[in-house]
Amino acid sequence: MAFQLPELGYAYDALEPHIDARTMEIHHSKHHNGYTTKLNGAVAGTELEGKSIEDILSNLDMSNGAVRNNGGGFYNHSLFWTVMNPEDRGYLSGELKDAIEAEFGSKEAFIDTFSNAAATQFGSGWAWLCVLPGGKVEVCSTPNQDNPLMPGVTCGGTPILGLDVWEHAYYLNYQNRRPDYIDAFFKVINWNEVERRYAAAK
Ligand code: MN3
């Protein structure tokens, strides 16, 4: 079964004014769709065909550029759409709140750390909140479409929150103002989904 471009679960304009409809449409229907198509092409007829994306990325030969870039792009965006929600956002609570406060001291300090990781990732990449076995959380960033599942990446664990800081994610609305886009992201985070991912991964 080939990888399928996932539905967003909400309309392209649902995150307005924080993330604009045109950006969402191009990002999902062009960029994410492109990664999906190229991933399918890269695994077709190889030993990777039919494996889960998590399995492929966790055991990846990092010299395999086509799967690294397109498999990362497929996985990262599939996570990204789910951690935003226009309506049912919830709030930071429960075990995830406890883990974040244990690591960073407060929700505000976590937001500062995550925002700094996103702002200082040079060029294209992602900022992440990850869970390590046992439940400890950490923040990191990765270049291009790399992610924490991949071997040898700066942070380990399971990503439960990710922010795309490629210019295609914000340039139409925010131009070079990446920090404004990062601030906007925190207004649309779906904490219910992040908490669900935390519980599943810890
Ligand atoms: Mn992107």
- How large, in whole angstroms, is the Cα Rg? 16 Å
Domain module tally: 1
CATH architecture: 3-Layer(bab) Sandwich
Give the fraction of residues assigned to helices: 40-55%
CATH class: Alpha Beta
Distance between the termini: 29 Å
Bound molecules: manganese (III) ion
Report mean pLDDT, rounded to a whole number.
96
The H-and-E topology, N to C, reads as: HHHHHEEEHHH
How is the biggest beta sheet arranged? 3 strands, antiparallel
Assign the CATH superfamily.
Answer: Iron/manganese superoxide dismutase, C-terminal domain
Residue fraction in strands? 5-15%
The helix/strand class is mainly alpha
What is the CATH topology? minor pseudopilin epsh fold
Separate helix tally: 8
Strand order within the widest beta sheet: 2-1-3
Which overall shape is indicated by the principal axes computed on the Cα atoms? globular
Number of strands: 3
**Would you identify the regions where 5 or more consecutive residues have pLDDT less than 50?**
none
Characterise this structure.
Keywords: Metal-binding, Oxidoreductase. GO terms for molecular function: metal ion binding; superoxide dismutase activity. Belongs to the iron/manganese superoxide dismutase family. Its EC number is 1.15.1.1. The structure is a single chain. The chain has 202 residues and is mainly alpha-helical. The chain has one domain: minor pseudopilin epsh fold (3-Layer(bab) Sandwich). The chain contains eight helices and three strands. It has helices at 21-43, 53-58, 65-82, 94-104, 107-120, 171-174, 178-185, 191-201; strands at 125-131, 137-143, 158-164. Helix 1 runs antiparallel to helix 3 and helix 4 crosses helix 5. The longest helix is centred in the N-terminal third of the chain and has 23 residues, at 21-43. The mean pLDDT is 96. Manganese (III) ion binds at residues 27, 31, 77, 164, 166, 168-169.
